[in-house]
Here is the input.
Amino acid sequence: MDVSLNWLKEYAPFDCDIKTFAEDMTMSGSKVEVYSTEKDKIRNVVVGKVVSLDKHPNADKLTVCGIDIGSEEIVIVTGAKNLTVGDLVPVALDNSLLPCGKEIHAGELRGVMSNGMLCSLGELGLTTHDFPNAIEDGIMVLDEEWPLGTPIEKALGMEDYMVEFEITPNRPDCLSVLGLAREASATFSVPFNEPKPQMPQGEDDINNYLSVKISDTDHCMRYAAAMIKNVRVKPSPRWLRERLRVCGVRPINNIVDITNYVMLLYGHPMHAFDHKYVKGNLIDVRLAKTGEEIMTLDGVQRKLNENMLVISDSEEPIAIAGVMGGEYSGVYEDTNMVVFESACFDGPKVRYASRQLGLRTEASGKFEKGLNPDNCWPALAKAMELVVELDAGDVIGGVIDVYPSPRSERKVPLNADKINEILGTEIAKSDMEKTLVSLGFKVEDDTVIVPTHRYDIAKDAVTQYNDLAEEIARMYGYNKLPSTIMKGTATARLTERQKFTKDVIGYLLGLGFYEIETFSFYSPKNFDLLNVPADSSLRNPVVISNPLGEDTSVMRTTAVASMMNVVQRNYNSRIEAVSLFENATEYHVVEGEELPKEVEKFIMAVYGQNKDFFFLKGAVEKILWALNIEDVKFVRNRQNTTYHSGRCADVVVNGAVVATIGELHPVVLNNYGIKTKVCVCDLNGEELFKYVGGARQYKQLARFPAVTRDLAFVCDKAVANGDIIDIIRESCGEYLESVKLFDVYTGDRLEAGKKSLAYSLVLRDKNATLTDAVAEQCTGAILDNLRKIGVFLRT
Amino acid sequence: MKQQLENIRLSSLEQIEKAATPAEIDEIRVRVLGKKGEVTAILKQMGKLSAEERPVMGALANEVRETVENALAEKLVKIKAELMEKQLVEEEIDITLPGNEFEMGKRHPIQLVLDELKEIFLGMGFSIAAGPEVELDKYNFEMLNMPKSHPSRDTQDTFYITENIVLRTQTSPVQVRTMLDQKPPIRIIAPGRVYRADEVDATHSPLFHQIEGLVIDENITMADLKGTLEAFVKNMFGPETKVRFRPHHFAYTEPSAEMDMTCFKCGGKGCRLCKGEGWIEILGSGIVNPVVLESCGIDSTKYSGFAFGMGLERLTMMRYDIDDMRLMYENDMRFLSQF
Here is the structure.
């Protein structure tokens, strides 16, 4: 909301500099975003009088002007042709600055010294809308008398400030000069001089020309109309144009300017239209009928539906209520009689039509917030007063005002204790009363009467004291309220699950992984990149109905895709090696459930030297160990099409799959344009959490010596290390302390298709020194059992 | 004999003086003082001496032995010290050579800031609550005093799944769920991802992180809100930080306030970061609207509370002087490795 500072002062005569004004208004609840003034953009431009005009001695197209600027007479060379001796003109002196950013310096023009420049409208940042008597191309000639040498910003009314307020949605009353003036009067403790416009008397009777009917009283609270005839369309006077210009509204003509002026003053949109196009002399406010259409003022044919409120004549809609008028709802050259509409429509209804039609206007923006129907009358009266003042036409007698159920004033008990309880203060009741009165409330016998323009207050009985508390607190000053430490104690700690997440992240950091953060949505194309089968449930994501684009269209069902986009980015940036992880959420549709299941994942990805399947497997093993998770198996997974079918495993704990780990399928790598191996682990935090062990129990340090045995075996390449280790464990029972694979060999020294695996075993008896006999018994059992699956001692 | 002993003393001390290694010292010890050494050899001749001379010579011999022994011991300490010194000099390294390359993981900057916030609020007795990101409109808006037609919804461009399911635009639905599940007293923070239909640019992202807090108890006041948030800011940004509260409007709080803190870069003098104002807007807050309490089944005549919320990306960008929000979701190693 852009407002003129001088206009505010007209109703609230505060006296302070602009900076204090902005700060104090902000602190009392009307936030000033910015303020600016045209005079800051102008320097050294004054009113001058043309005293002589001579042809330039060396240039046909130039004129040498003698200009009287009060203190002296100077010479300026101009190319303009519209000047005559005696004209008052804006003179940019040497070292001056113009609103367009141009700096002017004295200089020679074809041999004649020019001591500045005469300005056009455009050079002063103005248009013919602002000064209708001036011309566009040529020097601006002032149409008022000013002492010579007067700063131009004064002469042209550029000294006012534009103040931009951020108005919160609960305060539609502040979308107006009067609303903000009321706030200013309370903030600076100055009177609020509310205007009291009187409807002018006129000849004739409006009822001869118009009747108004509200068919939908639920959504049209009030419809008031006044009329004028013999309309005289012309430019508005300068004071009016200036007010509009500072508020950022372009002056058009007196009729349009009056409606805009009133809209700014009361925050109440008004509509003026040619009576001739109202068929049947009837205005009916009703819901649109199925199939009805309207050509709006902007020339677009729009389809209406039965949820949209329209203004209709006896035949068809002539305006979409509160949004925009129909194609003939303006004032034209041949217009004689004009209807001024001042109505109040239901906010949500206006919002609906505006949304559905994709048509947001100044009016709809205001109506949406819910306006005060009590403003319809003063706004209309003010408009008619202006018609008279501006001689814009002849007011027709009478007013039509349909207001079926007037808005009533709400009443709230003034309960000072309750308010102090909310704020933690001890503000006196009398001070509260004073504050409320300064904001337009009335207080009678300890009852606060809420003015109808404050419909945000006491909407609901349970919140009424909070509403009043805010009014009092913001005027008292939020920063003067005490600061206290809450009474009572509270203990807080992480839940087991939160601690688990924190721990896993800690382990990953310790293992050298970098954490990433990615978006939770992406394009469904990611499923193709990951080679996800057509019938996979991953391809059934939560779909966003109004995405910004394809990249934000579905919620991720696999965070591996998000990870791969990051891997790809880094690979393309020629990063040689990465270890990355994300503590990611996935969103899985669950049949029969309203909301998807949100699953916590830890996605890891590595590439680079030595960062292969086993690197990642080692990391996962360390994490599982740290979580005290036992009974972990890596089970080959050939089904997952994202991964290399020979280099992928499920991590199984207690029979449940908690993670999938593997090298990405060459096809997938190719899809991402990555020419190095990438390994990924997709770890399900929720599943894993179920198996987290408690605190590890200390085991007594060994008191008896161990026996070490190294054994090398030969077997077919297909035999799995895991199977051999299982057999070694079973064969040794409690004597086996550890077994470790330390060498794998395939090559010339073995038969084709064979490999050799060498293990180092540590055998120990907890209660005695292990004898050779027991050690031999163990190795014997190992050899016997391994022989059964075709694994033989290497000789 | 006396002369012989004196000679031994002199020559031994001379040799000891020249000795440069522990082996040489040992060799002298054996040669002079050993069982078959020079001093022993002389003592063997004691028999030839008169009864008067014997104790005198004996004493002299002992004195010589003691002198030599002391000299040997002293010299050995000196030699060892010299050798140690020599070894240390030889073993000197170029300490400016690079250290070993350890792979140390890095936390994402957003999470670093979040960790800090969690730590502060845990210390103040706030538990950490979480809830779904794909959320019912009911919890994200309606129960927070924002019915479908509410104009406040305009300021939060919402991603819809269906008419009744949204991507949460704030972490406030976690507050609603907590109030529905839990009886007061309540003291929680709810950090998490939130979504708004904003195109990506240097300061906007359709996905960002919020952290909200909620306190519900008997007799909670606006003064408590101020005290708690001031304590938080001083914890997070240093004890010299000042805050100010400005009136604002949120549908789910009344009274509502926005909180500014003194710019941590210029300390309030005004700079580029705070656009010359000296203040930086940091969070929104307010007394929980009793309408919200009631809709969550909490008796608003008995309990009151306050709530607050802030954006993590903004805090992170301020803390690390990051000028483009996009960097945080691109995850370039050259960016991540800086934290």
